[in-house]
Write a structure and sequence with these properties.
alpha+beta; homodimer; about 240 residues; globular; 9 helices; four-stranded mixed beta sheet
């Protein structure tokens, strides 16, 4: 029996850790969500030690995944490792590279969503940068979301069901998460965009209805969206019908 | 003879394309910098066609690298492909993953540097977002640069010469580029930080003095830093000694 994976990530938010959780859940791969376990085995102090390089080189940020003795960080890097191990990535090198490329593009979108409520500094609160957030979010909604989502919609037009290759991959699972987060954070803007992205909305539904994902979403392992994560719902940022300032 | 690589990137800036150029130059791998060639073979129209998916799936953004029939985009993804082909990446899987992890962290830093002069929208000019840029840049200089560079300095303390593995890799070449860009954009802040990052400064010097890199830097193939790229020198953003607003 292989050792269960160990996921090191903040215990109260979906955040970037969620992209890893979704793959492990769909793969039915045993894993421990370490920082959510009680101390001394778990807790954020254990996470901090792993980041600092307790068992190897230091990591700049979480999530970190431990697979046997290997410690890996950076979400797209982790996914490029676990995807192929569990049949959730294309088999050949061109497909693997394409999957990583798309994941990096999703990661760019996620970073832009984060910065829509933190355009000045991640070390400040939202309230400390609200005017700038209103301005940045208006551009996100008006220009960036249509551009990013339009790109992925165009890719789905080719295969119809999957973003890369001809079967489910970690990229599809990540797109599910991004779409779910956007629907939570920007319900008005997403309703406005919906007619332009039918295939992405359908992909999100299909994945939500996969038995393992559905069971996960209904479990306590799935943290709810909240106002500390990447996807936050601030009604004043969910604007349409006005010119970006 | 293999076909020369074809690099598709904006013709007037170093930008993210520079990370690819540095690897190809160090590897002495034949390549064509397509958008810098005269039309109809080159020019930005050819770049736009490749982005739109002329020879395969569309790409969200440049750089795009063509290797025989394979078209790859997203800088860290391209590097994870060409690094191993030219002996500029660790040999085993753990080292390859570590290299990709570090490259993604450098990419995060590059994105934060870009956003220090474009904190609201990449579609606006710098002048349209100057007050916000002053605020974001102050946090970059005060908090983020010390954190990112301190992380890489700590890694160099382990091997002394290389960021990953025991020989030169694409990560070292990318760190050279990031350090060069920061020294151009933030000379005062970097002088202030210098005592804390001697190993990174030394790495930059060593790589600048490698014969192939030196020849490249002195050639016309190396575009100069300028005020349209990622690393821009705005004196009002290069601040120290004041509290981040």
């Amino acid at each position: 029996m292989p050792m269960p994976y160990e996921l090191y990530y903040w215990p109260t938010v979906q955040g970037r850790g969620e992209f890893i959780r979704l793959v492990l859940e769909e793969a039915q791969a045993p894993y421990l969500d370490i920082a959510r376990l009680p101390a001394p085995r778990g807790g954020t102090q254990v996470l901090m030690k792993v980041l600092a390089g307790k068992d190897g080189p230091p990591h700049f940020a979480s999530p970190v995944l431990k697979s046997d003795k290997l410690l890996i960080s950076q979400t797209p890097c982790i996914l490029s490792y676990i995807g192929p191990r569990h049949g959730l990535a294309p088999k050949g090198e061109p497909g693997r590279l394409h999957a990583l490329q798309l994941q990096l593009t999703l990661a760019d979108l996620v970073a832009e969503v984060h910065d829509s409520h933190h355009p000045i500094a991640s070390g400040l609160t939202y309230e400390d940068q609200r005017p700038e957030a209103r301005r940045r979010a208006a551009h996100l909604v008006k220009d960036r979301l249509p551009k990013f989502l339009g790109y992925f919609e165009q890719l789905l037009a080719q295969d119809g069901e999957h973003l890369v290759g001809r079967s489910l991959s970690y990229v599809d699972l990540s797109a599910f998460q991004v779409m779910s987060g956007l629907l939570y954070a920007f319900p008005r803007a997403m309703a406005h965009l919906a007619p332009q992205i039918p295939r992405l909305l359908s992909l999100r539904e299909r994945i939500a209805n996969r038995p393992r994902i559905q069971a996960y979403l209904e479990s306590e392992r799935r943290l709810p969206f909240n106002q500390e994560g990447i996807f936050r719902h601030y009604p004043e940022l969910d604007v349409i019908d006005r010119e970006a300032p």
